[in-house]
Specification:
- This protein is mostly helical.
- It has nine helices and two strands.
- It has a two-stranded antiparallel sheet.
- Helix 3 packs antiparallel against helix 4, helix 6 packs across helix 7 and helix 7 runs antiparallel to helix 8.
- The relative contact order is 0.11.
């Protein structure tokens, strides 16, 4: 039993519930920070001297930004008990998710010539292409399942958080390349983030929720597969397809 400064007793269960409700908004804020850091130089804080970017990238950037902001708003609504508003806003979330699923693969494909010109590395370009495509596929599956299981809050919330972690990969990769000139840091962070969901489950529920387990496994497996594929002869073939 914990005693507050006001002299009120708070049971361990109540304390855990508060920490549990704060976890999802906190993770949402962390993802927003990563997305901003990853795309600030080329999108959010793009200097005027850098010139305009294509219209489809504006739509893509707006859709991704809206998705992560909606994640924060939705998790905050649940944390504050405003479930009716959360449900109504969920329709907008589904529409934004559809735009993300349609546009992200196109942005990846159209960006291959630029990637090759900027990094001059078939291996790195293949890693970016394979990882982004696999992870947007995972996003599609996780969001779809979250919609199916929308009446199961524990499953629904974990699926949407993990889906958002999956599509944070491009931001993490860009931030890592800019910071240390290698995608290694981004890869590590992308594999650690879903493990935070697993650790949260263990701490709060003394068990790992099935959605956390296989959702995290899907993200980590896709990252490992992308690294392996990019280090094989298939990397050149994959890049060649898009070029």
């Amino acid at each position: 039993m914990t005693i507050t400064a006001a002299g009120m007793a708070i049971s361990p269960a109540t304390s855990n519930a508060r920490r549990h409700s704060a976890f999802f908004p906190s993770m949402s804020l962390l993802l927003i920070a990563f997305v901003f850091l990853g795309f600030a130089p080329t999108y959010y804080l793009r200097p005027a001297a850098a010139g305009p970017i294509p219209g489809y990238l504006h739509v893509h950037g707006a859709a991704m930004s809206t998705w992560f902001l909606l994640l924060l708003v939705q998790t905050a609504l649940i944390a504050t008990g405003r479930r009716a508003v959360h449900r109504r806003l969920g329709v907008a979330g589904a529409a934004v998710a559809a735009v993300v699923v349609i546009l992200n693969p196109l942005v990846v494909a159209w960006g291959v010539p630029h990637q090759m010109a900027s990094n001059n590395s078939t291996q790195l370009t293949a890693l970016i292409v394979v990882a982004d495509l696999l992870l947007v596929g995972i996003f599609l599956v996780l969001v779809g399942l979250a919609i199916v299981w929308r009446r199961s809050p524990e499953t629904h919330s974990r699926l949407l958080l993990l889906a958002s972690i999956a599509v944070s990969a491009p931001a993490l990769g860009r931030f890592s390349l800019r910071l240390i000139d290698t995608p290694l840091l981004g890869i590590i962070v992308l594999m650690v983030l879903p493990l935070l969901v697993v650790a949260h489950d263990r701490m709060m529920m003394k068990r790992v929720h099935p959605a956390s387990a296989w959702g995290s496994a899907a993200i980590i497996s896709s990252v490992v597969a992308s690294v392996v594929i990019s280090n094989t002869a298939a990397a050149g073939t994959i890049v060649g397809w898009f070029l």
